[in-house]
RNA sequence: GGGCGGAUGGCGGAACUGGCAGACGCGCUGGACUCAAAAUCCAGUGAUGGCAACAUCGUGAGGGUUCGACCCCCUCUCCGCCCACCA
């Protein structure tokens, strides 16, 4: 060692050596077990490497380096997710070819990453824009097309009328075009779709087989949105057929359902237990019943119930002529894309895409439309059928409503407090199959056309949305679920008989002072409202009035309201010596005057009258289990009870719990052909088209004769044509590719006739959906990757990335991998064994770093000023890895000082630079003799650092190394062995300084070829421990004790303490709690 | 509205499974070195009271469980992220 720590000198030196030695290459033929570390490959933006990239890359670099030292052959690859909007926009602005921009940016990123000293296998670098790469992206698309997972459908896209281009969702800010600020519109366009919904169940269930952070699993599950429920068929009465004749298809013949004059609305519900409370039915504006339009490409393949979501008569053959007989027959409990040969047709609307602003950090896996926006139109083509509004008498009004809905922007539909609107369909009624009751039918936009069946049974008593709608349109509210309570004060007693009764609580208010009439019982310590039973067939209000009169004599009451539905409570009725199951209705009255009739002596003997204000009721011990419900409802929290409970007024199902009732009611419906249990997913198919230049061309042509024809695999890669100048999309919203006639016009691979190329390109999620496979065999020209190599490396053992990618990217890539697994390409069903996430690095002040704010930190500056090792260790030390953290320069100084101190430790080495052989071959070499304090600390540090790395607690790992260095500094001398062990612990964090010091120790071999230190158990055993003595839980003293000290020893020693004696103050300890090895607590 | 996460000194953050709150780092204060400064080193650093030993208080607020609570339970406030009329 010569003098000062100079990272500017040693860092490039070691980087060059490692590269020269191929130190971090993965070996396909290695004997060692493999370990595949993956980070999300960056989008090479013009802004250069973000400080956040360094944090996540360093974390995985630490794991990769540790794994190598643990004897694994590690694959830690890197590449570029280089298709994407910023590059394209830059090209539009400057006219520079995106390929050139990409080249410059990747060069810069590569240079920056290499300066940090990451142990990437650079020989496997990939780039999604490289034809040798996207050849296989296109190939996968063709396989999906073959298996019927890729299809075309009409979709709404965001459209800027001023810029005349389609906008990705992230380009629409608050409903406006990001660039020009004009209001974005929706425009219908035919789009390529990928049927990810066919994999919904497996994507959901297989999460059980992988080791992802729980929060990631939760997000994935929520996104997939599995819900169990039931389809219920409501027959439409008064339905009038019209206009069958003008259909150009024989829909009757192709309709799978036996035709009769009954038509149905099918609703999806998760709460079939509330079916008796249904007082109307609502269909979405998009629903076929009111569109009255027959559509194709609807639903098929995405639903797992036996009937389509619209009128049975609406069924028509799909556009491909496959016949709608197929429709609905797919059973997706075991989806097998291998079998799915038909083009599944467009269930058009997609789910809400969320673009999660990841800033420039994290990775580029961030663009595109993602899954389609919710609430957009179904991909439908009108081919004939009924005329609009069949059977609907107020069709004009209905159509006006629908038109209005269409005009509403996405914003309006979700903003403005979401007041519910709708129109009743006059002339038709729906029949509730469980009780034969006719209920009205509405169209309302609070029902979504693309979820479930596009129709709901409305149960206002038990659904807040239905409730709001029912209130507004004055529809009946029927309570059929009772909350269930057990009275805690008088719980039911075992062995007593149970009696179920309908009861009332009368809440009688005196308008003079606002107080309520209560009863104070004489033989029991009770205060109650006026309580009583409801006679068979008696009206609850009448019953309540009667009870008030009988018990108190007040006779002139005005009925105010009934407080929601019944509440069931179980309690022990001491005055009757029996358990009661009381189904209680609360009725509110006001006194018109204080007229009182005489009360029988018997009643008068039982209780006396008490007037209590609401506050008193709340504070006094009322004997009323239902009190909380009554108070809430009195205060205007209307009686919508949305939880599970006990059924009431539900025919033979009354008395069942909600969950029992769901089973039994759906079983009954199914046995009668009126419904069945189903599972639904919120997940929508993936909109896969972009009207952009800088993406993978979709490798199909449109032939006048043959329709959509896939390119043969031999024609791949289909490369982008050169464009002079304009990379802007066309005025029509088509991709810029559409402008290049020489490229568009081609011949059909099937018939040789004229054909035009598809001009849409793929979203840049495409390239990132399978890149982890390509790393394994990145130069293979004849296959996506060699199957043997795939088998060696897959699955990815550890994949770390940002939470912003847990829904879209993670789901897309799992989907593609599963598809590739199904067609025999990928060796594992799940691509990633383990997934963790990092927190973002924010700018100082906790805001996002952005060019416009001028608060972007350039890693080059930090490396120049402090060194890569300092930057790395600081980013690990600054805070918990999984939490967002604000950047601050302050801590950097401390990290640099730490490395300086490490450097200086070399001066204390006992055998400085004296040996050419490796003095630290065996990490446990020096465990003989009496372990010193330093030995023990060293070995504890080995344990701490090892464990912390595995748990990604890098901050505390660094802290424990600092503690060790602080202690080593105080030693007069340090053994080479001890220092060597420490260097190995440090090496994954700050590899250059560790390697340099290691070489200075006289080692000729890289520190990364040594083994990861293992702690000697002997060194971890302490012979004395510090025992804390507390009195009443407050620490008063401590003492050293042997680890073998018995409880009695500890107790005696603790009680002998002067300080304890002082706090005992002569009193005898009541109790002494002894936790061996830790503390003694004296209780007085 | 729903889900997830968070709140600890002047600051970033520690605290295993309920057992000495504030590790480690930054900053600050004092000292050493220096003509001086930087760098480095040493000591101190939660608040309050006290010359001090020491005592009391203290982990967003309020309750509870416990011998003992940053940690578990209940209620609430605030912050972040994600989703959001999903039947």
Can you offer a commentary on this structure?
- The protein has 32 helices and 43 strands.
- The strands form eleven sheets. Strands 20, 21, 22, 23, 24, 25, 26, 27 and 28 form a nine-stranded mixed beta sheet that branches.
- Strand 42 and strand 43 form a beta hairpin.
- The longest helix is centred in the N-terminal third of the chain and has 19 residues.
Which SSEs are present, and which pair or pack?
Layout: H1 7-21, E1 34-39, H2 51-69, E2 73-75, E3 79-80, H3 85-94, H4 98-116, E4 126-127, H5 131-146, E5 150-160, E6 165-167, E7 172-173, E8 176-177, E9 185-194, H6 200-205, E10 211-212, H7 214-224, E11 227-237, H8 251-254, E12 263-269, E13 280-283, H9 288-291, E14 294-295, E15 382-384, H10 395-407, H11 410-414, E16 422-431, E17 438-444, E18 455-458, H12 464-472, E19 481-482, E20 484-486, E21 498-510, E22 515-521, E23 527-528, E24 530-533, H13 540-552, E25 557-562, E26 567-573, E27 578-591, H14 601-606, E28 607-612, H15 614-619, H16 627-634, E29 646-647, H17 658-671, E30 675-680, E31 686-687, E32 700-703, E33 707-710, H18 741-744, E34 745-747, E35 754-757, H19 765-768, H20 771-774, H21 787-793, E36 798-802, H22 808-822, E37 834-838, E38 841-842, H23 859-866, H24 868-877, E39 885-886, H25 890-905, H26 933-950, H27 954-970, H28 976-986, H29 991-1000, H30 1017-1020, E40 1024-1031, E41 1034-1042, H31 1047-1055, H32 1058-1064, E42 1071-1075, E43 1079-1083
Parallel strand pairs: 1-2, 1-36, 3-4, 10-37, 13-17, 20-26, 21-27, 36-37, 38-39, 40-43
Antiparallel strand pairs: 5-6, 5-9, 7-8, 9-31, 11-12, 11-16, 11-30, 13-18, 14-15, 16-17, 19-29, 21-22, 21-24, 22-23, 22-28, 25-27, 26-27, 32-33, 32-35, 34-35, 40-41, 42-43
Helix pairs in contact: 1-29, 23-24, 24-25, 25-27, 26-27, 26-28, 28-29
The structure holds one RNA strand of 87 nucleotides.
